[in-house]
């Protein structure tokens, strides 16, 4: 009964929030003004929760595709991993400046365009971390599991769903939980969307905090908003993360039994639910055929993979990939050059030199304070610091 009641409540709230996210949008006045009245906070919390969940789902999908591709294809990883590392350090507002127009164009005359921009802001705060952790865990799958793949003659599809993804689940789940904290930091910025007609504040806890800061309302920020955030985090913990952590324990690959004695109430209810026990065999059958259907079909038809054609196709796709990347770099460089008046970027040189001077001064000050606690290191120049960092990186 608890599971059924939760499904009904969550479905009703999700439908209510989803329908409000698809209202008509003409200009900034189309969105209801944010109020500091605490009675509006439950609704704001609902809208923020919807954005967090949707952003989390898209982040996970992105991680499964890109993280797996980077782990399995070195040519793809050579290009995408540096890009992901760069995007991980890019500020959130940098994404919102050029993606808002795209999402508004994608959903014309609908608030969903603004919602998509806000969700994308949440997506950028956590997708890169999740993709990198999946890439790393797939790369370090133990040799015993790899030997099992060979022994059971699993194809790449089966290997991912039966070996690699289950092995990655514990680390992936913990990284998603940590990334949620970054998503909370992004809420305030992502819920204020700049448009041609002015900034639009979407209903949410982030907009509530932003308005409280503008009005210098200490009670609204440090009491009402804080209580709403705590309630939201507790609900996420009790209804989502804690049951998933308990479920993920069966995927831990350890020689020592480190299973926790914690047994969340929702997980216990899930195990005892008659509805779940009735649906579980059907769901298990569907999953089984999705994972193994192609393999069974291949054995029935007795198809033989054309090895020679596959090798040729791999070489052609690799060549095409690098041609596309080089062409994109040439196009981007040409566009950047012509972005400046008469293609002249010489006036940037003094600014770059000044920036380097500031960075050099900052690094020296930082290293000086660091070296006081590390007497074995006596160099204090930028070059020495750079070489030291390079050596540390290479040894790691």
From TrEMBL:
It is found in: Cell membrane. The keyword Electron transport does not apply. GO terms for biological process: transmembrane transport. It is a multi-pass membrane protein. Signal peptide: none annotated. The chain crosses the membrane at residues 49-71, 92-111, 117-135, 218-241, 278-298, 319-340. Keywords: Membrane, Transmembrane, Transmembrane helix, Transport. The keyword Membrane applies. One of its GO terms (cellular component) is plasma membrane. SUPFAM superfamilies: MetI-like (SSF161098). Residues 45-240 form the ABC transmembrane type-1 domain. Belongs to the binding-protein-dependent transport system permease family. This is Binding--dependent transport system inner membrane component family protein.
């Amino acid at each position: 009964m608890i599971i059924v009641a939760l499904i009904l409540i969550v479905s009703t709230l999700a439908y209510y929030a989803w329908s409000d996210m698809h209202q008509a949008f003409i200009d900034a006045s189309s969105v209801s003004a944010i109020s500091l009245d605490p009675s509006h906070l439950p609704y704001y919390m609902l809208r923020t929760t919807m954005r967090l969940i949707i952003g989390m789902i898209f982040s996970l999908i992105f991680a499964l595709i890109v993280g797996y591709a980077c782990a399995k294809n070195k040519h793809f990883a050579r290009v995408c991993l540096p890009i992901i590392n760069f995007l991980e350090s890019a500020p959130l507002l940098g994404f919102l400046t050029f993606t808002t127009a795209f999402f508004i164009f994608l959903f014309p005359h609908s608030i969903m365009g603004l919602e998509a921009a806000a969700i994308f802001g949440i997506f950028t705060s956590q997708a890169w971390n999740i993709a990198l952790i999946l890439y790393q865990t797939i790369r370090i799958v133990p040799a015993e599991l790899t030997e099992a793949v060979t022994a059971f003659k699993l194809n790449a599809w089966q290997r991912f769903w039966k070996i690699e993804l289950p092995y990655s689940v514990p680390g992936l789940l913990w990284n998603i939980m940590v990334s949620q904290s970054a998503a909370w930091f992004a809420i305030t910025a992502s819920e204020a969307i700049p448009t041609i007609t002015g900034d639009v504040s979407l209903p949410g806890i982030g907009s509530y905090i932003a308005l409280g800061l503008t009005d210098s309302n200490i009670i609204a920020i440090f009491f009402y908003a804080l209580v709403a955030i705590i309630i939201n985090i507790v609900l996420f913990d009790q209804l989502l993360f804690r049951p998933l952590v308990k479920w993920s324990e069966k995927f831990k690959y350890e020689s020592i039994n480190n299973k926790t004695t914690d047994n969340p109430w929702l997980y216990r209810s899930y195990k005892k639910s008659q509805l779940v026990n009735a649906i579980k065999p059907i769901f298990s059958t569907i999953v089984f055929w999705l994972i193994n259907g192609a393999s069974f079909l291949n054995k029935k038809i007795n198809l033989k993979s054309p090895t020679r054609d596959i090798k040729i196709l791999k070489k052609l796709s690799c060549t095409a990939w690098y041609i596309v990347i080089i062409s994109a770099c040439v196009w981007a460089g040409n566009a950047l050059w012509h972005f400046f008046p008469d293609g002249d970027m010489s006036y940037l040189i003094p600014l770059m030199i000044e920036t380097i001077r500031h960075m050099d001064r900052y690094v020296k000050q930082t290293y000086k304070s660091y070296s006081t606690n590390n007497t074995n290191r006596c160099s204090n120049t930028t070059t020495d610091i750079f070489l030291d960092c390079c050596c540390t990186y290479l040894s790691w």
